[in-house]
Write the structure tokens for this entry.
Amino acid sequence: MNKKQAYKQLLDFAKQAAENSYSPYSKFKVGAAVLCEDNKVFCGTNVENASYGLSMCAERVAVFTAVANGCKKIKAVAIYSKKGDATPCGACRQVISEFSKTADIVYNTKGDSFKTVKISSLLPKSFDVKTLKK
Ligand code: THU
């Protein structure tokens, strides 16, 4: 399987995950799928709350699930939304950056297509204590 096929498959996992979205307030279903270095895939969806600020994005649910299952190196994150063109919010960009500075972010566009962009171009100079001078 080449990269394009692998990313299409990852996006399909994200699309499936969006079916489980709990988003009665925004009615905006999002699904995410993380591809780890060992090629394992972990999914997430957005989970909202009556206390709106407690809502959690699909990407962070997926990344935290990957980490909780022992995967700390991320190769790619796919994001699916019905409307398309949804890229990770700022908070999710920082969380993804914690586990990879080179990850590919894959997201569906209008129609049945998708785009790929590097996390480093979505969040240049992410906060990272490892690179801070002593
Ligand atoms: N949301 C995500 O899950 N991921 C994104 O990249 C953008 C926004 C969720 C948060 C909230 O549940 C809903 O989409 C509307 O903002």
Summary: The chain has a mean pLDDT of 97. The chain has one domain: 3-133. Strands lie at 30-36, 41-45, 74-81, 104-108, 114-118.
